[in-house]
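Hi Prof. W.,

I finally got the ATVPS33 vacuolar protein sorting 33 prediction working! I wasn't sure whether to trim anything, so I left the full sequence exactly as given:
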Amino acid sequence: MAQVPNLDNAPINLKSIRDQSQKELITILKNIRGKKCLVIDPKLGGSLSLIVQSSLLKEHGAELRHLNAEPVQTDCTKVVYLVRAQLDLMKFICSHIHNDISKGIQREYFVYFVPRRAVVCEKILEEEKIHHLLTIGEYPLYLIPLDEDVLSFELDVASKEHLVDGDTTSLWHIAKAIHKLEFSFGLIPNVRAKGKASVRVADILNRMQSEEPVNTSEQMGVPEINTIILLDREVDMITPMCSQLTYEGLLDEFLGINNGAVELDSSIMGVQQEGKKIKVPLNSSDKLFKEIRDQNFEVVVQVLRQKATSMKQDYTEMQTTNQTVSELKDFVKKLNSLPEMTRHINLGQHLTTFTSKPSFLARLDMEQTLVEAESYDICFEYIEEMIHKQEPLINVLRLLILFSITNSGLPKKNFDYLRRELLHSYGFEHIATLNNLEKSGLLKKQETKSNWITIKRALRLVVEDTDTANPNDISYVFSGYAPLSIRLVQHAIRSGWRPIEEILKLLPGPHSDIKRGGFSSSPSLDSLNGSLHNSDKIVDGRRSLVLVVFIGGVTSAEISALRFLSAQEGMAYDIIVATTKIVNGSTLTETFVEKLG
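And this is what came out:
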């Protein structure tokens, strides 16, 4: 199955976006005649695999290499670097070229920055006296379709940059990506934003529209995207710190999904090749995965069991009775789905080895206690014990962040004590990590009484007796906790944010609500309470679209909850998600980790 996801069923033409990016890259290669060595920044490698097959790059005369400290081994006289604008990567390029010069190797060098060039990087190339040897260009890759309803800006550390370093470069990048979408699908008339970064992106977007306007005349027709909802990760740091309980969410928590695939030992997938790793693609092209990805894992186990049993019965019938040709045909059709079934039975079985561990179940209990925020001492002692047992630091920090946010910080005595214990247990080099978490407000001393209980009750975030098999609420993705971020989206779509204005004020950052362009005739979200207005239907009978943008990352479970909302009866919208990165609690916490020395 191809790594490049199939986008044929996307609610808007995402294929055109991908084709455009592919075309731009091929044009760069075509313009450099003859054979060339394409040296790719390893972080970009995964992103590119979702846009273009490596065979296509080779067809255009490119030898492929990953960029690292080692000099490039190639016979090509032309070397093309495709890199993000990062200082450490510039150092690699400089050392490569110096190495060639010292050996008397003559080559032509090209550096293409993704998505745009940066003055600081060029300054390094000038200081190293190689700038004049380079042809410099840009490859404007701002947005990558990961699946038919998910786009990624591929900005791994956006949350940390914004919260800790005060660096807002990523916000310009996000606005630019959205503005590029508008040139394809029309100006988005309604913009809702919550959080410092989101409100800033909404402002930049408006500035871009005034400097480089998208045509809003009548001939353009109704814009394909009716509303954009921008949310800062900071607004809801509770959700990502909880363990996801959907099938896709658990795959990410335990095996790590990268660029729409998991990499694991071949033995797990029933392939006997000693020590060999294999990549298993996970996207909607896999029909069975599409069916089960968003379900609670408890249910997935039952679904796979049923499918296997039914196939076994069919097989037995085949052997014992005379079948008509059409019955045979049906059976063969079912057999076609066997590889997918085997794949997910293997993955599911492997996941069960993690989910059945007492330590995992104890952790889920503790997360529930933290979210309910009613037993402070029990939580404190649990985290203290984790530190003394020297459990993985990331696991401790995840719970600590959850503890700090639901309590609006820890009393000074407890805060100082846990901080000291952490440094004693894991080493003083982690003081920089703790400072990052404090600076970003994820870990702090308690100054005011927590308002989490008010928020939790007002938005009905803890749902008793959640039915995971036949869910009627988004809380099924965490078996009883409804993600705060998605509740906000649900309110924005159903009745607007006005009725929950007071609750919004209790959450981090400002919020804004802007109407743009000459679309006074298109109904605002406030008037849409789930019923479908005729003017809201796009001409060819498709539903109107809401683009939900997460600045700082989104989890698979939240995407599942949005898909669940979109599939509800009486829902007037299709939902597309755009995010800086797909994250889980561990990968998000890791971006704040910084070791001294």
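The CA atoms of residues 192 and 562 lie 17 Å apart. Does that look reasonable to you?

Thanks,
D.
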